[in-house]
């Protein structure tokens, strides 16, 4: 193969500048600013600030409330990621088998994808509403007292359910196209070797879907951590109360609602570090086990 | 032909620009949504129509918290509006930032308007003032917590509206018998904490409730309020009191739906309730504990005030002053009071509303303002506490836990005091 090379170092740098500039302005600069202000306590109007060293960080470790949010975020992310992937995979496998009316069926399943998170959150709130919610009434008929916004875990269930529901269509689209990319010949060969559908799925289909699955795993963890903000906000209606909160929502509550810029910056730096660790772990340990064809 | 159009267009544009230059335009950021927002727009239109020197444009910025955050961000970018509406809990943040706003008294004096703080109703006068009593913010939508009752439900149970929490304890079983939960309440931090201390004339914080400076500690862990929340948890267990979570409306809706016989909310909710409910309702003073005091005192105002932001031209400040003057006039106060239910802020406006027979028609509309004029005490003017939005969040989190039985009132108030004092110390540091 012929190697393409640039004659001069300046040209490739010139080509990279637009991209680098965007990253610098929208990521490195604000990130740098967040790191800087995480060491200060600042008057909201910007009149005065005091250097406090690591105080903003040590305060987080002392706060039982912050730790509780961290635990909740861990549980929330695991549950949402697992169920959003599992249900989407199940639906995709079943949809893949449908022959008649396949297009309509798939379109209907993908439809939810077009709903904006706050709208999804709002629909969720309506289903779970204290007095008028259909699900609340259903639980009531079964003798379960379900109270959104009053009971911590009842609120958590609503957040988790709506978040999973919102993410399934995205995962479904990817899994379905992944399934359709598996060569027919491989499937037919497997059919001869083993008549058990379940065995064929775990031995042949699942490993061949792994690259898609790995990609979706990362996307879903990011989704649960960050993009569920709109859903959480709609469910707690901007009033945290004794409701569960994800770490990202907490950054917003302390920084934008509470005007504590230093504390909120420290929290976002912690989040940045967490995402960095997560990315390294995923790519170093998990991706090695994936085979790309 | 084409040239003609261009000339015509630029001529028209030039004229418009000329007209715009002659009038001073100012912007007003507020947090009044829905029906209240329409009334705000109406007031701005009326002001614009009343004279031709100034044009005010109201801009809805979301919730109180969002409005304050937007104004702060705009100030830091040098793009601040002329007027911003700041709610009670955010007052300390704005007032502490000297140089961010022009005190309303200074603004009015500089622009040749007479401004007499004594004309304001006593419960209104002090909240947005500094330690010397100089008014920094211009009180706008002022309200105070009152108790609304479903008169039909109370008649059905054969009971009278309660004056004290002891009365409430007595009538609640009869209401339950008649099929009603006794009571719900919104914004417990306000109705059952800040105003609880004011109603019983108990100190809420050290250093003159925080008016004396940022070196302040909260005194919320008081036996009276610990007992109060212990009772609330017991009442919840017995079905006398219902708790629907931190949302304001979540606690108001069951009252309007006729499930709960009484609701402690804002005097400013009067207009909305009158529009929506189909039962007879009344209002009465915020209850107090007779076991704590035999001489209950007044409450102070909640709601929000308008602050003139600094860094504007003299012409624009003159426009802001003209608008404040317009706003404080008795006619406009009465218009606002009758439309929304928020209390009139001056004695003159109150008298005018009475003269027009508003209270004969709606006795419940007068309760808030009467309560603001009850005897005052050392601890009834309000509070000035930094990072107070976060402190309120700590309170409501712990209150939810008390009512859910996850913690005791003793532990919860110890936690609130500890976390609040840490926040207050942090706020003091931001000022250092």
Automatic annotation (TrEMBL), chain A:
Any single GO CC term annotated in Swiss-Prot or TrEMBL for this entry: plasma membrane
Topology of this chain in the membrane: Multi-pass membrane protein
Annotated transmembrane regions: 12-31, 70-93, 105-128, 156-179, 200-223, 266-286
Annotated localization: Cell inner membrane; Cell membrane
Domain ABC transmembrane type-1: 70-282
A Pfam family this chain is assigned to: BPD_transp_1
Xref: CDD domains: TM_PBP2
Keyword terms of this UniProt record: Cell inner membrane, Cell membrane, Membrane, Transmembrane, Transmembrane helix, Transport
GO terms classed as biological process: transmembrane transport
InterPro entries per record: MetI-like (IPR000515), UgpAE/MalFG_permease (IPR050809)
Protein family membership: Belongs to the binding-protein-dependent transport system permease family.
Name the record gives this protein: ABC transporter permease subunit
Native organism taxonomy: Bacteria, Pseudomonadati, Pseudomonadota, Alphaproteobacteria, Rhodobacterales
From TrEMBL, chain B:
Self-association and partners: The complex is composed of two ATP-binding proteins (UgpC), two transmembrane proteins (UgpA and UgpE) and a solute-binding protein (UgpB).
Gene Ontology CC annotations of this record: periplasmic space
PANTHER family assigned to the protein according to its UniProt record, in alphabetical order: ARABINOSE-BINDING PROTEIN-RELATED, SN-GLYCEROL-3-PHOSPHATE-BINDING PERIPLASMIC PROTEIN UGPB
Subcellular location as annotated: Periplasm
Role, per record: Part of the ABC transporter complex UgpBAEC involved in sn-glycerol-3-phosphate (G3P) import. Binds G3P.
Keyword field: Periplasm, Signal, Transport
Domain of life: Bacteria
Protein name: sn-glycerol-3-phosphate-binding periplasmic protein UgpB
Regions annotated as coiled coil: none
Main location group: periplasm
BP-aspect Gene Ontology terms: transmembrane transport
InterPro entries documented for this protein: Bact_solute-bd_prot1 (IPR050490), SBP (IPR006059), SBP_1_CS (IPR006061)
One Pfam family linked to the record: SBP_bac_8
Tagged with keyword Signal: yes
Lineage of producing organism: Bacteria, Pseudomonadati, Pseudomonadota, Alphaproteobacteria, Rhodobacterales
């Amino acid at each position: 193969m012929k190697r393409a090379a640039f004659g001069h170092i300046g040209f490739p740098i010139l080509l990279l500048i637009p991209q680098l500039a965007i990253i610098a302005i929208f990521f490195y600069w604000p990130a740098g600013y967040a790191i800087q202000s995480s060491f200060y306590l600042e008057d909201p109007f910007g009149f005065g600030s005091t250097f406090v060293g690591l105080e903003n960080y040590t305060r987080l470790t002392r706060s039982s409330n912050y730790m509780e949010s961290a635990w909740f975020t861990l549980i929330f992310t695991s549950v949402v990621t697992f169920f959003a992937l599992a249900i989407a995979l199940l639906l995709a496998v079943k949809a893949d088998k449908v022959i008649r009316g396949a297009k309509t069926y798939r379109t209907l399943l993908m439809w939810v994808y077009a709903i904006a998170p706050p709208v999804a959150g709002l629909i969720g709130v309506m289903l779970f509403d204290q007095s008028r919610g259909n699900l609340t009434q259903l639980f009531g008929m079964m003798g379960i007292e379900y109270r959104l916004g009053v009971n911590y875990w009842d609120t958590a269930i609503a957040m988790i359910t709506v978040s999973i529901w919102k993410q399934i269509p995205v995962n479904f689209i990817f899994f379905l196209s992944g399934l359709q990319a598996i060569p027919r010949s491989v499937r037919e060969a497997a059919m001869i070797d083993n008549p058990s559908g379940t065995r064929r799925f775990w031995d042949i289909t699942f490993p061949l879907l792994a690259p898609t699955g790995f990609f979706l795993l990362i996307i879903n963890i990011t989704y649960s951590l960050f993009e569920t903000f709109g859903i959480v906000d709609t469910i707690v209606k901007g009033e945290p109360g004794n409701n569960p909160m994800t770490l990202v929502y907490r950054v917003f509550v302390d920084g934008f609602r509470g005007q504590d810029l230093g504390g909120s910056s420290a929290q976002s730096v912690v989040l940045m570090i967490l995402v960095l660790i997560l990315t390294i772990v995923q790519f170093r340990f998990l991706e090695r086990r994936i085979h790309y064809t | 032909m084409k040239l003609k159009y261009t000339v015509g267009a630029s001529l028209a544009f030039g004229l418009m620009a000329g007209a715009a230059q002659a009038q001073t335009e100012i912007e007003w950021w507020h947090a009044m949504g829905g029906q209240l927002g329409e009334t705000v727009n109406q007031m701005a239109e009326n002001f614009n129509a009343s004279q031709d020197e100034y044009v005010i444009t109201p801009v809805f910025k979301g919730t109180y918290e969002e409005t304050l955050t937007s104004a702060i961000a705009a100030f830091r970018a040098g793009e601040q509006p002329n007027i911003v509406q700041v709610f009670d809990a955010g007052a300390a943040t704005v007032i502490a930032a000297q140089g961010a706003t022009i005190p309303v008294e200074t603004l009015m004096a500089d622009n040749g308007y007479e401004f007499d703080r004594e004309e304001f109703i006593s419960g209104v006068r002090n909240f947005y003032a500094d330690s010397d009593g100089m008014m920094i913010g211009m009180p706008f939508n002022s309200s105070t917590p009152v108790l609304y009752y479903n008169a039909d439900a109370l008649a059905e149970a054969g009971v009278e509206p309660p004056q004290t929490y002891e009365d409430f304890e007595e009538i609640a079983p009869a209401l339950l018998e008649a099929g009603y939960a006794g009571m719900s309440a919104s914004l417990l931090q306000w109705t059952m904490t800040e105003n609880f201390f004011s109603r019983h004339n108990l100190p809420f914080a050290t250093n003159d409730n925080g008016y004396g400076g940022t070196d302040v500690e909260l005194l919320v862990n008081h036996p009276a309020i610990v007992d109060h929340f212990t009772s609330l948890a017991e009442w919840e267990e017995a079905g006398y009191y219902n708790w629907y979570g931190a949302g304001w409306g979540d606690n108001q809706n069951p009252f309007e739906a006729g499930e709960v016989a009484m609701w402690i909310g804002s005097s400013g909710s009067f207009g909305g309730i009158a529009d929506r409910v189909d039962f007879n309702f009344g209002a009465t003073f915020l209850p107090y504990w007779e076991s704590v005091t035999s001489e209950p005192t007044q409450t102070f105002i909640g709601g929000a005030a308008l602050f003139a932001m600094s860094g504007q031209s003299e012409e624009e400040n003159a426009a802001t002053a003209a608008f404040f003057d317009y706003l404080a006039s008795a006619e406009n106060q009465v218009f606002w009071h009758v439309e929304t239910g928020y209390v009139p802020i001056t004695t003159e406006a109150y008298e005018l509303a009475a003269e027009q027979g508003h209270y004969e028609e709606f006795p419940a509309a007068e309760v808030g303002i009467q309560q603001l004029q009850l005897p005052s005490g050392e601890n009834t003017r309000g509070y000035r506490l930094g990072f107070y939005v976060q402190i309120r969040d700590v309170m409501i989190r712990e209150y939810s836990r008390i009512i859910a039985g996850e913690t005791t009132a003793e532990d919860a108030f110890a936690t609130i005091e500890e976390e609040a004092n840490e926040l207050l110390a942090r706020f003091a540091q931001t000022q250092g």
